[in-house]
Write a structure and sequence with these properties.
It contains 16 helices and 4 strands. The chain is an all-alpha fold and 414 residues long. α3 crosses α4, α9 packs parallel to α12 and α12 packs across α13. It is globular and about 60 Å long.
Length: 414
């Protein structure tokens, strides 16, 4: 049954109402100058326009993900602005505007009265790392909510969504009283060992959805030129820090998923700031610095298979590489089909995990003490759209709730 045509259920009526609002918005633009085109690089070129076309055509598959997006945006309307100033203590440098967090896999030494120095227990997340003392969960909520709200505004034209997205971004990044300094010097500190590490930059991947949000808000009367200039200045300073600081350089040198996510951020920052040559250079280097080093001919990723959560980290690195491949489409760098001289590539890495997604009871031969959730749905769905692989698509559809995923909205399936 076509969900949009349904008049017998509340979700159906809600989708029809929202779709009507979307069509009215598009129609209004037809008689005047259209808003500035959004600059969103974490989706393939043209994905937003195609999603609008599918909504306008009342394609049944997009009803549930669109409804879910709006529900999440409505929830985000109620979110209070968060900032680095919300933590109860100052970072080691004394400036509360600096981001601060604690390493997740380190625990107090039970043999020491003060527990110091903390000891590593891979795969066992210390809840201290995500309590009120850490900026990590706050930044994640701000950036993901801003992206959701900006998407909702883009599709519906409802000003309240843009206003809330702008408010969240201003408080975290721009307002002098609450803004975060553009560095991760004190990220993922290990108590008794250091005040921050290069690996802490993995948490700064939250800046990617924030840049999406800014690109989506282009043309909104709520998002001003001063806001836009301020975000570009912040991201420009952060890019400089990422490329020149000891912590940034350490992360760039990482061979595993940390290196992949570092590159994702550099590419997104470069595209956001109009530095296309830097984006291309970084993406081309992904072929030899990441894919060729990380992925064997059979698709295995030894650096991730050595982790306690070996399946989860194998998927995690694929996530970063899929994001990089998607961004590469904007500048003509094809990571989707690259194969190293040894024969490893992104498709091989996804295929290596596929049998264990298709059959959740199939023994995972790399169990290192932690049983992981075998969910590769997003990566499989995106890859299916590129490779035309129906097996990938079928496996993605098996994931619980996947029919409501934004991937279904932005990546037409097989």
């Amino acid at each position: 049954m076509n969900v949009f045509a349904s008049s017998f259920s509340r979700p159906g009526r809600l989708c029809a109402t929202l779709l009507g609002s979307l069509l009215l918005t598009v129609g209004a633009w037809a008689g005047e100058t259209a808003p500035a085109l959004p600059r969103v690089f974490s989706l393939p070129p043209g994905a937003l326009a195609k999603a609008k076309e599918r909504l306008a055509a009342r394609e049944g598959a997009v009803a549930a993900p669109f409804q879910q997006l709006i529900a999440e945006a409505d929830k985000a309307l109620k979110q209070k602005p968060l900032s680095v100033m919300d933590k109860p203590q100052n970072p080691p440098g004394g400036d509360k505007h600096d981001y601060m967090s604690q390493a997740p896999y380190f625990w107090p030494d039970p043999s020491k009265p003060d527990g110091l120095p903390y000891l590593r227990k891979d795969g066992q997340r210390n809840p201290e790392s995500h309590d009120e003392h850490s900026d990590s969960p706050r930044m994640g909520r701000v950036c993901s909510s801003a992206q959701t709200l900006a998407l909702a505004w883009h599709f519906t034209g409802k000003d309240a969504y843009a206003e809330q997205a702008a408010k969240l971004l201003r408080v975290w990044f721009l307002d002098p009283a609450t803004r975060m300094n553009p560095n991760f010097n004190f990220a993922q500190a290990v108590p008794g060992v250091n005040t921050g590490r290069g690996t802490g930059m993995i948490e700064s991947r939250s800046v990617v959805p924030a840049m999406d949000a800014v690109g989506l808000l282009a043309g909104s009367k709520t998002w001003t030129k001063a806001d836009d200039d301020g975000m570009k200045a912040w991201m420009g300073e952060f890019l400089t820090w990422a490329q020149t600081s000891p912590n940034g350089k350490d992360e760039a040198a990482a061979k595993n998923n940390h290196g992949s996510f570092y590159d994702e951020q550099i590419v997104m920052l470069a595209l956001f700031l109009g530095k296309e040559e830097l984006a291309k250079k970084t993406l081309e280097a992904v072929k030899t610095r990441r894919i060729a080093v990380q992925i064997k001919a059979d698709g295995s990723q030894p650096l991730e298979l050595s982790r306690a959560d070996s399946f989860g980290y194998s998927r995690f690195n694929i996530e970063a590489l899929v994001h990089l491949a998607t961004m590469g489409e904007h500048v003509g760098v094809d990571l989707w089909h690259y194969q190293s001289p040894e024969g490893g590539g992104l498709r091989q890495a996804i295929s290596f995990l596929l049998p264990y997604v298709e059959d959740q009871d199939k023994p995972w031969p790399y169990e290192n003490g932690k049983k992981a959730t075998r969910n590769l749905a997003s990566e499989l769905w995106r890859a299916a759209a590129v490779y035309g692989d129906e097996r990938f698509a079928r496996a993605a559809k098996k994931a619980s709730g996947f029919d409501k995923s934004r991937d279904v909205l932005f990546f037409p399936g097989k």
